Amino acid sequence: MTRIVFTEHEVELPGGALVVRSAGAGHPILHLHSAGGPRISPVVEALAQRYRVLAPIAPGFSGTARSAKSIKSYADLLSQYLEREGGGAIDVIGQSFGGWVALWLAARHPDCVDHLVLEAPAGLRTPGAWEPRNEAERRRKLFVFPDRAPADTREPHILQGDQEVMNQYRDNVAFDDELANSLGLIKARTLVLMGAQDELIPAESGRLLKARVRQSHLIYIFKAAHALEIDQPERVFRVISDFLTRGEGFLVKASASA
Amino acid sequence: MKFSFFHLMPWTELTEAPEEWPTPNESYDPIKGKELYDRYLGTMARAEHCGFDWVAANEHHFSPYSLMANCNLVGAALAQRTSTIKLAMLGNLLPLLNPIRVAEEYAMLDVMSGGRLVAGFVRGIPHEYIAYNVSPDESRPRMKEALSLILRAWTEPEPFGWEGEFYQYRSVSIWPRPYQKPHPRILMSASNDESAEFVGQFPSMVGMTLIIDLDIAANTLDCYRRVRAAHGYETTPEDVLLSQQTCIADSDEEARAHMTEALKYFHRILMRPQQDAQRIVLQKTRFFDDDRQREFFVKRLNTLKGRTLDEQIEAGSVICGSPRSAIKQIRRLHKVLGAGVINVNMKIGNMPNQVVDRGMELFRDEVRPALRDL
Asked: Measured between beta carbons, which residues in chain A are less than 8 angstroms from residue B149?
């Protein structure tokens, strides 16, 4: 297996600067990180073995320029980036907060997104969803297998900065009504992955997406909580890569000889 | 207190114990087989008029021990022959089966019966993993994943997929959905602390069988209740089912005589074939997680076989006697173990059918009325 090294470059766009990490070659995919920051997980590394992975850092995270101050404006910035990249509609993967952004990208700029993969997407926490009492409890509920989680190596000032930026993006919104009413605009074939043991993003969020996004598939990952890529990297990679490779054909079991 | 009438549907034409499992089926006579199914289904349907709240069946493979390779078919036949009695499938051997198929069949049964299904999920007897070529090492994790998947299949409003260790489905939406909301009551079995802990994690009743010691059984049930409480479930007596080989006759002496002969046939003829296959699975696999559980399983069977009938009655392993004695023994089980459902198996081994019929009458006319206060 080729050793994957992500390089980082900054792109100047009409809306501001965007820092993008990239690795791999071939068919490009856009990977949007979670509120936990722009970590490269084993799943992202595995994707970079097969694809050219473009992994932007959400403006403001990791001390980057605050070119976008809302989720919608970040989505608009991404559309500018994709237009700059050329190549037409792109496959997009969004994790949690990144899923929220990806949904707005697909709703506001439907021609930018080919296949959409949402991993436990935030932004649609239905009323009555379980709320953690504190940050420690929230972190505990991220994983079924906390021993698989990599250590958070962010410097304290970066960690604090990321948390503040995330709060600004979230803007005290648990259920994005405007997004929920815009889901019908999404043209992309969409795969929604939910952890079967996820308590942070309730199953109702996935069901809502399945009901309102026209071409969508909802899959539960067993023995995974919110951090899908950490809890079950092989399963997540398997289903994502099959979906990206075969599109709607991924519904049909491939023969062993295929 | 509720009472369930269980039938094992044994093949009773053997005069000698087969020596191997799977048992060669050359001697199986389908004409006799039809007679037995007609007879047994008739008896089971009659339970509705004999004071029983449930009628129960289960699943076994490749043996004259039981002719129910698929209890759901028995349930479907009973759904047409009965109208109010609950249909307790005790149960599908879930680790051996396709969980979506089980979810669908149980949903069909529940709808066809107007919401009378009790959905049992069990691991099965160790040697039966050979039947469907499933690794016994995978028994518990398969059980957990399959049940989680079935609960989703019963309750998800949108088509969904599942990516698990043992089961992968890309899009599931069962038709019909169950009649009962949110789903039929679930029952799983436990015989030790490990299995009690496993069952307690789910919204499930617990069933116990082959009790050899009431204190051990009580401890196991306490463990079940504790784990349930930790998962936010309240436990009532109706969550606890005890299975009992049962003979009720007009006198204690008659009941004992019948029970002795029936148990002899059961253990020496019907149970004999699977001993070697069972040994292989127990010794060579991780059907049980540790030696302690494995040894307890083996000890349980050997203890029952080695005890006198009096010892079995005293230990709470069987119910045997006149109606008066049966009432006393049932009250004791209720008091010591807090059980709210007693699952009686009257067709033990080659117990004569007329003895079973008479036992059902005595239950209806004398035993049940005396236990209305429980």
From this structure: 222
